[in-house]
Design goal:
Lipocalin, TATA-Binding Protein, seven-stranded antiparallel β-sheet, six-stranded mixed β-sheet, 5 helices
């Protein structure tokens, strides 16, 4: 055996191996550096100039729920006082108040109205202020302290006169509410907000307020008239647009084209 040739061969082999391992190490460091450089959601929001109020913290789990529109009867309206109530249809109470209720100027703090709701409206304490628009005030139904968002089957719409007094209302309600599936981990609100940015729903400099977790109707099973509602984050953008982001997967649920930022 030619020992010198063998030794030279080993040297070449080990040199090639060292070069290979060096390239592997450099590639690993570069990949790690690239991962470390990836911006967080908060950094992306900051870079886009998005202003947002304090986001709810802590880990949260919620279940999907199902419900049906409540069927009102003559018995339901026969007990209502200080108003003239009728059934608009089996799912709606339509009422005219005997005495208008002044609401003042404090949006969302309608104490006299909420006193009336507590005493004179069917399960009136199960609703929470949602919005005031032109000559209407909307209260949305609540389940387990979570608002049932943007649901025409679960709200009270109060009508106002020219004196800013409540003169009547229409009420709908969901009942037979049931929880199903296992508890699901809800993504942090800031991640849901990041989905709005990623999908083009936020303009540079947008101001986001009112982060709140509730339920949004995902599907209605026509044959059984059952609604399926999923845990959902709500955000108000620039004081005008309401956006709803599914809590476990961060899918934007109200995706009308007109809401997209060009």
């Amino acid at each position: 055996m030619d020992w010198n040739k063998t030794k030279s061969l080993f040297i070449v082999v080990f040199l090639v191996l060292d070069i290979f391992l060096l390239y592997q190490f450099i590639g690993f460091k570069a990949t790690k550096l690239e991962v470390n450089k990836e911006s967080t959601v908060e950094e992306k929001l900051e870079d886009a100039g998005i202003e947002y109020s304090s986001m709810p913290g802590g880990s949260v789990t919620e279940k999907t729920i199902s419900a049906k529109a409540k069927v009102f009867t003559e018995k339901d309206i026969s007990t209502l006082k200080n108003q003239n109530a009728v059934l608009g249809n089996e799912n709606t109470i339509v009422s005219t108040l005997e005495t208008p209720i002044p609401i003042g100027t404090g949006e969302g703090k309608y104490f006299d109205l909420e006193t009336f709701m507590k005493k004179e409206i069917t399960e009136g304490t199960s609703y929470k202020f949602w919005s005031k628009e032109d000559q209407t005030i909307i209260y949305s139904q609540v389940y387990n302290e979570r608002v049932l968002f943007n649901n025409q089957d679960a709200q009270i719409v109060f009508q106002l006169n020219e004196k800013n007094e409540v003169v009547g209302y229409e009420q709908t309600m969901l009942d037979n509410i049931e929880e199903f599936n296992e508890n699901q981990a809800i993504k942090p609100a800031v991640e849901a907000l990041g989905s709005l940015l990623t999908n083009g729903y936020l303009s540079v400099g947008s101001k986001v307020t009112n982060p709140e977790l509730g339920y949004y109707t995902l599907v209605e099973v026509t044959e059984s008239e059952i609604l399926v509602l999923v845990p959902t984050w709500h955000f108000k953008v620039d004081g005008q647009e309401d956006y709803f982001v599914e809590g476990t997967g961060s899918e934007v649920l109200n995706t009308e084209e007109e809401n997209l930022t060009e």
